[in-house]
């Protein structure tokens, strides 16, 4: 999908370049496109919302993950004991049931984690796009391209907006959280006044 988007983007640039040549012959001033690049991988891993999401996921699912890992280790130990030829068929069946139960719990856990990650990624993408827009607009860039998408082989350092976008994502995240905190305080104050 990214390859298709990059190809379309490249075609648009070529068409824009051709059109600029046509309009330039009419002696109109056509400015060159100013393209910026952002390393989305860096923004997604080093930003304040990314760190907060990791803490949120650990807080929400950490204990359950640890419990499943402990159950898995216990099953491995039981599997070793089943190698003894004197073990009854009943013990082997108990082990199989326990393994199936753990497999089902693990699948359910993975589904819950994936659903939560999708929500967090959507929030992150929204912040990154908003930050990219703000930085590009403020610095006069016409296009911003994701370096990690694989289409950029070289970019001048002056075109790299990664740190600016990272700072803007952090600023927007703090602003968003401050608004949430203010809303909670207002709700609590309203509830206290009703009493």
Give a quick rundown of the structure.
This protein has 195 residues and is mainly α.
Written account of the structure:
By secondary structure, this protein is mostly helical. It has one domain: Skp domain (Protein Binding, DinI Protein, Chain A). Helix content is 76%, strand content 4%. It has five helices and two strands; from the N terminus they run αβαααβα. It has a two-stranded parallel ribbon with strand order 1-2. It is flat. It starts with a helix and ends with a helix. The model is unreliable at 1-13 and 18-30 (pLDDT under 50).
Highest-level CATH class: Alpha Beta
Radius of gyration: 27 Å
Lateral arrangement of strands in the main beta sheet: 1-2
**Range of strand content:** under 5%
- Class of secondary structure makeup: mainly alpha
Q: Total domains, how many? A: 1
Mean pLDDT: 80
Q: Rough shape?
A: flat
The fourth-level CATH homologous superfamily is Skp domain
Largest sheet: 2 strands, parallel
Strand tally: 2
- Percentage of residues in helical conformation: over 70%
Number of continuous helical runs: 5
Q: State the order of secondary-structure elements, H for helix, E for strand.
A: HEHHHEH
CATH level 3 topology: Protein Binding, DinI Protein, Chain A
For the record, give the distance between the C-alpha atoms at the N and C termini, rounded to a whole number.
Answer: 56 Å
Q: What's the topology here?
A:
Blueprint: H1 2-24, E1 35-38, H2 40-46, H3 48-81, H4 89-139, E2 143-146, H5 162-194
Parallel strand pairs: 1-2
Helix pairs in contact: 2-3, 2-5, 3-4, 4-5
